[in-house]
Design brief:
By secondary structure, the protein is of the alpha/beta class. Helices cover about 30% and strands about 15% of the residues. It is globular, with a radius of gyration of 17 Å.
Length: about 260
C-alpha cells in the first residue's frame, strides 16, 4: 500500500481528486467504483470544480441500503445524484447503484457482478473505512473472497450512521454491498480516511496483520492500493514519518 499523509482532509481529498482526474483525462471511458458518506464529499466537490468530461465514464457504487424508497434522502442513489452526478455530464444509463428494493436480492447481486465484468472491470475503486475497519459494508469477519451480496450491519456501524437518520433505530439493518473479492479486482483501490476516530482502523489496516476482523487490511495484498489520509487519521501509525518521507521524496515522474 502507498500511504499518502497530508496535513488536512482537504489536502488529502485534493490529491485523491487529482489521481482520479488524471485517469479520466488519460482514459475517457474509465470505469469508476464510487463510495458514499461524509468522507468522499470534499473529493466530489473538487472533481465537480475541475469540469471533467464524464460523458463516457461508467460508474458502479459500492453499496445501498435495503428497503428504503429509492427517493429517500438517505439512499445512496439520492446521495450520488445530489452530490456528484447531477453536476456532471454523465449519462444516466452509465450509472449503476445496487437496488435495495430488488424483488430477488441474490439474483440482483449476481447481475451486478456480471455488469461489472461486462464493463471491463473497475479501473479505480474509491473507498472509505469504517471505525471498525469495514470497506463498503463488509463488516468485520466478512469473507476476504466475498462477492456482492446482502449484509447485516453491526451495531457499531448503525451507531456511526445514526447521524444521517436522526437516530440509530431508523438506520436500516441490511444492505447490499460489493464483496471484498469484488473490490480487490479493481485495478486501483483509492482509500480515504480523515479524523482521529479513524486512526485505529487505519493503523490496523496498514500495519496490522491481514485479517477479516479488519477487512481493509486485505488492501495490503493489492498491487495498486493508495491511502490518502490526514494527520489525524495517521496519528496511530508507527511508521507515519517513513510514509511522509517516501511521498516527499518521490521522483518527479511519480508525482501527481
Amino acid at each position: 500500500m502507498e500511504i499518502i499523509i497530508r496535513p488536512t482532509a482537504a489536502e488529502a481529498s485534493s490529491l485523491a481528486a487529482r489521481i482520479i482526474a488524471k485517469h479520466l483525462r488519460e482514459k475517457p471511458k474509465s470505469v469508476l467504483g464510487l463510495a458514499t458518506g461524509g468522507t468522499p464529499l470534499p473529493l466530489y466537490r473538487t472533481l465537480i470544480a475541475m469540469d471533467l468530461d464524464w460523458s463516457e465514464v461508467i460508474t458502479f457504487n459500492l453499496d445501498e441500503y435495503i428497503g428504503l424508497p429509492r427517493e429517500h434522502p438517505q439512499t445512496y442513489h439520492s446521495f450520488m445524484w445530489e452530490n456528484l452526478f447531477r453536476h456532471t455530464n454523465i449519462r444516466p444509463e452509465n450509472v449503476h447503484i445496487p437496488d435495495g428494493n430488488a424483488a430477488d436480492i441474490p439474483a440482483h447481486c449476481a447481475e451486478y457482478e456480471e455488469r461489472i465484468r461486462n464493463a471491463g472491470g473497475i479501473d479505480i475503486q474509491l473507498l472509505g473505512i469504517g471505525t471498525d475497519g469495514h470497506i463498503g459494508f463488509n463488516e468485520p469477519t466478512s469473507s476476504l473472497a466475498s462477492r456482492t451480496r446482502i449484509k447485516t450491519l453491526t451495531r457499531q456501524t448503525c451507531a456511526d450512521n445514526a447521524r444521517f437518520f436522526g437516530s440509530e433505530e431508523k438506520v436500516p439493518k441490511h444492505v447490499i454491498t460489493m464483496g471484498i473479492g469484488t473490490i480487490m479486482e479493481a485495478r486501483m483501490n483509492l482509500l480515504l480516511a480523515f479524523g482521529e476516530n479513524k486512526a485505529a482502523a487505519i493503523a490496523g489496516a496498514v500495519e496490522g496483520p491481514i485479517s477479516s476482523i479488519n477487512p481493509a487490511s486485505i488492501l495490503q495484498m493489492h498491487p495498486v492500493a493508495k491511502a490518502c489520509i490526514d494527520d489525524a487519521a495517521a496519528s496511530a501509525l508507527e511508521r507515519a514519518n517513513y510514509f511522509r518521507w517516501v511521498h516527499d521524496n518521490k521522483p518527479d515522474w511519480q508525482k501527481i
